[in-house]
Amino acid sequence: MASTNPLFFLLLSTLLFLSPLSDAQTAPPLAKGLSYTFYKSTCPNLESIIRLELQRAFKSNVGLAAGLLRIHFHDCFVQGCDGSVLLDGSASGPSEKSAPPNLTLRKEAFDAINQLRDRIEKACGRVVSCADITALAARESVFLSGGPNYKVPLGRRDGLTFATSDATLKFLPSPRSNVSVLLAALALNNLDVNDLVALSGGHTIGIGHCSSFNNRIFPSRDPSMDQTFFNNLRLTCPTSSTTNTTNLDVRTPDVFDNKYYVDLVNRQGLFTSDQDLYSDGRTNPVVSAFANDQGLFFEKFAYSMVKMGMLNVVTGTGGQVRANCSARNPGTGWSVVDGEEGGSVAAY
């Protein structure tokens, strides 16, 4: 559905290329094999190609931005940022896409990554991995929606395996999880309190399904929820089995900003995993700081996204560069891994 939000299109038309990548960006140490200039000689126009293609796509489908951002999260937290979530299933078994946490990932977002794959290959040949395309598409989703224009280290290769459903469930905590569960999950990948709160800010765009938060409105209102917010949610989700959706951020749903944290301060977070960030004393100070300072949120979000984007990457001669992001290249057999070396996600 096309957006009717004039602010979104104002951002698209005025921010494009006006916010250069900052040389002063604070970033974690690079993972071995990654660099900020990886495709400088082999595909110098890579980032411009992706930005222009997605700028056009978002004009007709504003929800695609959140969809692409979410795919990057779900890829990285299950066995690392290797493009495994993009793979379709095979005779070996169902892919990560079939696991319950990934059933609501948007088909049009997967399609957009394959379309970018084709466009880039026409321009540069088959040199850019689907994992790198996914990471760059996530950055563009943030920037073109009004968020920071951070640098993305590149050089990922596409993994040769996908995780089982059990592993995907293990490393993608439910949106009904509390802060203790989320912190324990992120600690598996050396992500901390600041990373949890910053990465959760991705919920400033996108939608949530009634089934993901009906525990907070049935049989009665979660006491941590604002009464008016509750009343509106009960209109959207009149029964506990309703399949409707609602915006994650009630203030500026199509704009990447710090209003998600303002929502939390006002007890208008949608999921348990959202609102508990404000309720819990370990995360409350960070939520309050981000609610009061958008620049601080942008800085910390960019840092945590780069940090997350380097989880268990495949580089060098490992893996492959897929011709089709949904399938391994012909001539290679399938295998499934249990994901024990994978990561976890903050109910995203």
TrEMBL record:
Gene encoding the protein: PER12
Q: Where in the cell is it found?
A: Secreted
Question: Its Gene Ontology biological processes?
Answer: hydrogen peroxide catabolic process; response to oxidative stress
Write out the catalysed reaction. Answer: 2 a phenolic donor + H2O2 = 2 a phenolic radical donor + 2 H2O
| Amino-acid positions noted as binding Ca(2+) 1 in the UniProt annotation, renumbered to this chain | 75, 78, 80, 82, 84, 96
Q: Which InterPro entries match?
A: Haem_peroxidase, Haem_peroxidase_sf, Peroxidase_pln, Peroxidases_AS, Peroxidases_heam-ligand_BS, Secretory_peroxidase
Q: Kindly indicate whether the keyword Iron belongs to this entry.
A: yes
Residue positions annotated to bind substrate are 173
> What's the record's note on cofactor binding?
Binds 1 heme b (iron(II)-protoporphyrin IX) group per subunit. Binds 2 calcium ions per subunit.
**Molecular function (Gene Ontology), one example:** lactoperoxidase activity
Briefly state the protein's biological role.
Removal of H(2)O(2), oxidation of toxic reductants, biosynthesis and degradation of lignin, suberization, auxin catabolism, response to environmental stresses such as wounding, pathogen attack and oxidative stress.
First and last residue of the signal peptide: 1-24
Cross-referenced CDD domains:
secretory_peroxidase
Instruction: Give the residues annotated as active site.
Output: 74 (proton acceptor)
This protein is called what? Peroxidase
Q: Which organism is it from?
A: Acorus calamus
Family named by the database record: Belongs to the peroxidase family. Classical plant (class III) peroxidase subfamily.
Q: Cofactor(s) for this protein?
A: heme b; Ca(2+)
Q: What is the lineage of its organism?
A: Eukaryota, Viridiplantae, Streptophyta, Embryophyta, Tracheophyta
Q: Which Gene Ontology CC terms are recorded?
A: extracellular region
